[in-house]
Design brief:
CATH topology of the largest domain: FAD/NAD(P)-binding domain
Distance between the termini: 27 Å
Oligomer: single chain
CATH architecture of the largest domain: 3-Layer(bba) Sandwich
Shape: elongated
Order of helices and strands: EHEEEHEEEEEEHEHEHEEEEEEEH
Largest sheet: 7 strands, mixed
Number of domains: 2
Structural class: alpha/beta
Number of helices: 6
């Protein structure tokens, strides 16, 4: 494989990666973005983004992703499709292998983001898209008039549960504890919503149905009592898993797999930076990811200038 050389290789084309590319390309640094899926990251699956500054009426998630991609391309950033399977340092440069190609870079930004955490119970994978969902704003409209189950106790679970009441006849929020982690204002809204009920101290052991979700097997974690609970859909919001497989063993990560990069978005390897949801301590919001992409790009520019 003959390496293609760039000043910067950015792994991941979500909000952080695309913003970083805008900044590095605009600074006349040859920039390559590598993305294994659709550019835009999780925001692509969000129907309407209402909390991104500058769009008072909101903007479709897919549209903002397309705009960011086009803006990066305008300044000369190149986007290649391919899953990165190896990154290492050789002869003073970083080597990135993806899609059967090898790319070379003077500096790297890790912006792979995080994926929705799954329950890992029987039939969850089989029924994904057939009643199991991880995005209420994407799929809520398909469940009009149905009784739904939401799993989780944090902000996302309550936000999405409240959103689902626009379509569902009833929403039952299943939480393994007897109190919520969500912010007080969301707790208040959920507890006051007549369409929402809570099932405390409970987990799902199995998702059941004939070709689609029809019920869940609930288990009370205190009594171990089992109950079959009828539902037309299961929405799961129990956190995220960092997409840090290639980073482990190359840069320092915490016990959960998040890349440790604090001051200046610098990782434990000089010349490698991390931004967005892959980074330990990052906030799971688009505007935050974009800010981190900017910060990492500026830090990278300073690194390259000092290395000349």
């Amino acid at each position: 494989m003959n390496p293609s050389a760039f000043d910067v290789v950015i792994i991941g084309a979500g909000g952080a990666g695309l913003t970083a590319a805008i900044y590095t390309a605009r600074a006349n640094l040859s920039t390559l973005i590598l993305e294994k899926m659709v550019p835009g990251g999780q925001i692509v699956s969000t129907e309407l983004v209402e909390n991104y500054p500058g769009f008072q009426d909101g903007i479709m998630g897919a549209e903002i992703a397309q705009r960011m991609e086009a803006q990066a391309a305008r300044y000369g950033a190149r986007l290649d499709s391919g899953e990165v399977n190896r990154i290492f340092r050789q002869d003073g440069h970083f080597q990135i292998e993806a899609g059967g190609e090898r790319y070379q870079a003077r500096a790297v930004i890790l912006a792979m983001g995080a994926s929705f955490r799954t329950l890992g119970v029987p039939n969850e994978k089989e029924f994904t898209g057939k009643g199991v969902s991880y995005c209420a704003t994407c799929d809520g409209a398909f469940f009009r008039g149905k009784e739904l189950v939401v799993v989780g106790g944090g902000d996302s679970a309550l936000q999405e549960g409240i959103f689902l009441t626009k379509f569902a006849a009833k929403v039952s929020i299943v939480h393994r504890r007897d109190k919520l982690r969500a912010s007080p204002i969301l707790q208040e809204r959920a507890l006051e919503n007549p369409k929402i009920r809570f099932i405390w101290d409970t987990v799902i052991d199995k998702i059941e149905g004939a070709g689609k979700v029809e019920s869940v097997l609930l288990r009370n974690v205190k009594t171990q009592a089992l109950e079959t609970f009828g539902t037309g859909g299961v929405f799961i919001f129990i956190g995220h898993e960092p997409n840090s497989g290639i980073a482990k063993g190359f840069v320092a990560t915490d016990d959960h797999g998040y890349v440790i990069a604090e001051t200046g978005y610098r990782t434990s390897v000089p010349g490698v930076f991390a931004a967005g949801e892959i980074r330990k301590g990052a906030v799971h919001q688009l505007v935050s990811a974009c800010g981190e992409g900017c910060g990492a790009a500026l830090a990278l520019q300073a690194y390259l200038e000092s290395s000349n």
